[in-house]
Write a structure and sequence with these properties.
By secondary structure, this protein is α+β, with helices and mostly antiparallel strands. It has helices at 3-16, 19-24, 31-34; strands at 41-51, 54-63, 66-79, 82-91. It has a 4-stranded antiparallel β-sheet, with helices on one face. The radius of gyration is 15 Å and the shape is globular.
Amino acid sequence: MSPKELMISRYEAFVRKDWEYLSQTALHQSIEELSQPSNIEWLKLEVLDAYDNIVEFKAYYRESGIVGVLHERSTFLQVNGEWKYGDGELFKTKIERNEPCPCGSGRKFKRCCA
């Protein structure tokens, strides 16, 4: 599994709240850290770039009725032949008004969930 494939599978695990898988595929994240109560609904993953052991992505979510975006450049490391999530650099990013709405409605963000 490549770092990009692992990133996608980790996003899917966040959607399912599969804390065990997330802990197993990370170097420094315990189940206790990951499984904090949350009312986040994950909407969409957009992989922006993937090279070597780096994956940059935007993960769109809805929390308490507000749509937001998590923009991160993640670093993955190989341990015993398997890729693991190491850490990430977060960026301050907002959803632009004229972008397609991440909820999947097909409308512009400003006319939908903004």
